[in-house]
């Protein structure tokens, strides 16, 4: 079991560029989440999904989009990168609203 | 607006000392979770408390959920360098979202 995997680990973007952060889980969890963590801070929920084909906004969704075509994958899309999106991004999954299992994170810098 | 406030924000102590970290809210939560996050990694769940007044022990770590289910504390006895990390509390809202606290960064000096 790999758990939750995220790619890439690091990325530098220029302002206005786009990218997709990949997240895959092999635990057959129906719930998946995307968080961002700014330096020295807790995590803020960007988007979440309770199952394939269902997504909903979290606390800070602006500037991001998600899709959930399969149980395993939950990619996060940044369309027009801005410096305010410099952060560490974590994907997590869980059964219903139970223990969340986190990936190792993607460190994104927007210059 | 931060739903879950943690204190202190930073804590640096000597090995062998005791410490307590607090997680407070003005909202009632059905449960609260505590996570530990090490540098460069994602958070890992330590415990979930679900009943007001509940106390759970995990080796040298003691977790308490407030009677009114608005606050929680984490007490570490005889801290060790391996306890170093960011401690986060988290609680579910009425939907399927989780709110995370602001975090307490703990450093245990050998």
Describe the structure.
The complex is a heterodimer of chains A (111) and B (110). With 111 residues, chain A is mainly beta. In chain A, 0% of the residues lie in helices and 50% in strands. Chain A is globular and about 35 Å long. Chain A starts with a strand and ends with a strand. Chain B is mostly beta strands and 110 residues long. Chain B contains no helices and eleven strands. In chain B, the strands form two sheets. In chain B, strands 2, 4, 5, 9, 10 and 11 form a six-stranded mixed sheet that branches. In chain B, strands 1-3-8-7-6 form a five-stranded antiparallel sheet, with no helix packed on it. Chain A binds chain B through residues 4, 31, 33, 35, 40-45, 48, 50, 56, 58-59, 90, 92, 97, 99-100, 102-105, and chain B through 4, 6, 9, 33, 40-45, 48, 88, 90, 92, 95-103, 105.
Distance between the termini of chain B: 37 Å
Overall radius of gyration of chain B = 13 Å
Average per-residue pLDDT of chain B, rounded, comes to 93
Quick check: average pLDDT of chain A? 93
Major pleated sheet of chain A: 7 strands, mixed
């Amino acid at each position: 079991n790999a758990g939750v995997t995220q790619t890439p680990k690091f990325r530098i973007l220029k302002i206005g560029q786009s990218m997709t952060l990949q997240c895959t889980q092999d635990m057959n969890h129906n719930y998946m989440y995307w968080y961002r963590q700014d330096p020295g801070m807790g995590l803020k929920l960007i988007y979440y999904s309770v199952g394939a084909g269902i997504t909903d906004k979290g606390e800070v969704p602006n500037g991001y989009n998600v899709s959930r075509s399969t149980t395993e994958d939950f990619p996060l899309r940044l369309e027009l990168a801005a410096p305010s999106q410099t952060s560490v991004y974590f994907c997590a999954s869980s059964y219903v609203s139970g223990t969340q299992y986190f990936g190792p994170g993607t460190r994104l810098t927007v210059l | 607006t931060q739903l879950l406030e943690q204190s202190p924000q930073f804590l640096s102590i000597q090995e062998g000392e005791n410490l307590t970290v607090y997680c407070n809210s003005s909202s009632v939560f059905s449960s609260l979770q505590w996570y530990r996050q090490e540098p460069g990694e994602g958070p890992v769940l330590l415990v979930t408390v679900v009943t007001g007044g509940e106390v759970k022990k995990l080796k040298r770590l003691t977790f308490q959920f407030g009677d009114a289910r608005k606050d929680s504390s984490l007490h570490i006895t005889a801290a060790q360098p391996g306890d170093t990390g960011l401690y986060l509390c988290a609680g579910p809202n009425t939907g399927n979202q989780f709110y995370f606290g602001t975090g307490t960064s703990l450093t245990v000096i050998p």
